[in-house]
Amino acid sequence: MNTFQTRSAKIISGIVKKVSRNLEVVVGGPHPSALKLDIFNYFPDVDIVVYGEGEETFLDIVDGKNLANINGICYENNINPPRPPITDFAYIPLTNLDLVGGAAGIKRFTGASPKGPFPSMFIMASRGCFGHCTFCNTPVFWGSKIRTRKPEALIREIEWLSTKYGIKEIFFQDDTFNANKAWAETVLNLIVKKKLNKDIKYKLCFRANKALVTPDLLSLAKKANVWLIFYGVENGNPDMLKKIKKGIAVEDIERAFRLTRKAGIKTTASFMIGNQGETEDTVRESISLAKRIKPYGLGFSIAVPFPETELRRHAIENGNLLIDDYELYGPDKVLLRTESLTGEDIKKLHHSTLLIRLLLPSCFNFILRPKALYSYLSLVFQKYAKRSLCYNKNRVSDE
Ligand code: B12
Ligand code: SF4
Asked: Ligand 1: which of 137, 275, 312, 396 to mutate, judged by most atoms within 8 Å of the beta carbon?
């Protein structure tokens, strides 16, 4: 479970226990991994927390091993020692997609936005990120050491997805595909060599660092049929980028977008609003940067104080945490204020960015899809709408 799934996970664990008190409820994922024993205070029906990577730990649990001897779990009042990070991914089998209905089941999933060719599927090719962004859960969970899978194994996975399930788009959902540039080049070169660039398109996430985004890498990505690259931009103000420890300068961002466009690859820019230190002016600078870099897709999300992040600690220390109860967390919820912005200010600024998205010429193609148009317009005018389209407590219980 992630943090936004707190309420649904609580409901589901309650249902399990209603079926039988003898069923063990195990939770894992980014949220329980951060909270560890604290999970038991929120979830009366959870028996075991798996923290960190779950592959080996969960096997030990279902094999019935004595809980005291299983690393990487919390139970009752105990936090067992952590499990060392997995370094050899070879023994992890491919996901059994037949369990979700095979090719027909995959077609029910329409792919992550911005949408490309269909059917679309994910591959996680590496784990970890060397970044230290204050708002991010990745350094907390996966650590800073990047562990990459073998390029040959990735090629086998792509071939399998293509031949068995007819996949036309693959989204490498690694946090930072170009963190290890040499490895990224090997993977892309192999895709070209094995002609897996003919019928399949790719999208991936890059960091905008000058050393990592080079014309050579981008032209290789284009050759491999990468059609879209996501960049975490976060803010257009240089001091804010330093405060959130992004490790990237505004010039690096502008350069990365310019080079990517020049290589013929589309871009998506993710910005944030409401990190500590944010002011109305810094939001304006973000909007100005968004216009300058002309992304194909653009997102402004409201900062979320995930557990164990520096953002959350800082907000608590400075009395800026507005909502503590994780059950109330969700996208588009204002959970923090800053020294100079109230929650209401942040909400208004966020609304103004939604309008900017509609007006950005480079986003027209992306936005002028009926579904996107409907959701953007609903959000922009939500304060006039009878029922908010935002994720909220009532909506979850309706579902
Ligand atoms: C890809 C991705 C997405 C994709 C997911 C597509 C998909 N169907 O797989 C999309 C784009 C849709 C997405 C959406 C969101 N995401 Co996301 N996403 C990721 C990303 C980059 C990779 C996830 C992944 O597959 N990891 C690989 C697998 C192997 O790891 P895993 O899922 O964590 O599982 C391992 C362990 O956690 C554990 N485990 C997990 N579950 C369980 C359960 C049990 C029982 C056990 C024993 C173990 C266990 O074992 C697994 C194997 O080791 C992560 C960042 C990251 N690097 O992990 C963020 C991340 C998970 N996302 C995050 C967030 C916040 C979101 C959104 C809420 C964003 C938003 N504002 O809307 C939404 C939530 C969607 C939802 N339904 O709730 C945060 C979660 C932080 C938190 N504390 O909650 C992360 C960590 C990003 C970050 N850096 O902060 N996301
Ligand atoms: S670069 Fe991305 S994944 Fe890495 S720490 Fe920063 S936000 Fe997280």
From this structure: 137
Smallest-distance ligand from the CA of 127 = 1
CB neighbour list of residue 207: distance below 8 Å, 6 or more residues apart: 131, 176, 178, 179, 213, 231, 232, 248
pLDDT tens, 62-113? 999 999 999 999 999 999 999 999 988 988 889 899 999 999 999 888 888 8
Nearest CA to ligand 1 atom 33: 29
Residue 138 beta carbon below 6 angstroms from any ligand 2 atom: yes
Q: How many other CB atoms sit within 10 Å of the CB of residue 245?
A: 14
Q: With 0-12 CB in 10 A as exposed, 13-18 as middle and 19+ as buried, what is 110?
A: exposed
Alpha-carbon span 381 to 394, nearest angstrom:
20
| Alpha-carbon separation of residue 151 from 11, 19, 46, 212, 241 (angstroms) | 40, 44, 38, 19, 33
Q: What is the value of pTM for the model shown? A: 0.91
Tell whether ligand 2 has an atom less than 6 A from the beta carbon of residue 176. yes
Convert the pLDDT of each residue in 26-66 to its tens digit. 999 999 999 999 999 999 999 999 999 999 999 999 999 99
